[in-house]
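Thread: Newbie trying to understand structure tokens

Hi all, I'm a second-year student working on a class project, and my supervisor (Dr. K.) asked me to get a predicted structure for one chain before our next meeting. I've only ever worked with sequences, so writing a 3D structure as a token string is new to me. If someone could post the tokens and maybe explain what I'm looking at, I'd be very grateful. Here's the chain:
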Amino acid sequence: MRQSSAFILALRLVFSCIGCVHADDQSQNSTILNSNLLGDYDRCEQKCWEEHRDAAYEPVQVKINCDEVEDFKCLPWEYNVESIQREYGDVDEEDYNVLCALRSWEKAGCRRAAQECKNSPNIKRCCDDRWYIPYESGPLYNGYLAGCAPEYVLKSHDSPEHKDENCDGVEDIISKMEFTSGLGAEIDYRLLGRRKAEKRVCTFRSLTL
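---
Reply by user tm_fold:
Sure, no problem. This is what the structure looks like when written as tokens:
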């Protein structure tokens, strides 16, 4: 699935602070930032985060091709820099990791739709009813639902509805997450923290019954 450098730029703007370039990036036009001094960059970034950190993520109605998503393979950056940049333009390792994360969630959504949710009367609830989904609204959840529920229009107030589990199920989910992390996959430790808190409640209840 060929993507232009404009697509990577769009991802970068979603995941990072807009308009501030790194002080050590001499390839950027100095008119973007009046000075390439590190202090100027830090102030610009801080101002940006203060303005946007509490803003709700605005979802985009994305159309994806599940066959092309399935074919996407994330390559080790250090051995494939030149071929990756030929394909995607002027990207760095962080940009590429973002793309890989997004593609992995799109792929998970496509598989969930095919295996469980294609004819579900409540498509979003079916998509959310998985042992692990993105912790909060954002580009990854947006991409996941684009794969799982392509006709669902994601609204700004929509958020992931995490699977409710009994105490035995929580233990199983924690084991899956820790095993997945041990294999080197990225997991959201906020969700792992939530599940561990649920486990502590289960343990407390078992001791007090």
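A couple of things are worth pointing out once you decode it. Residues 1-7, 13-38 have pLDDT under 50 and may be disordered. The radius of gyration is 20 Å. Feel free to ask follow-ups in this thread.
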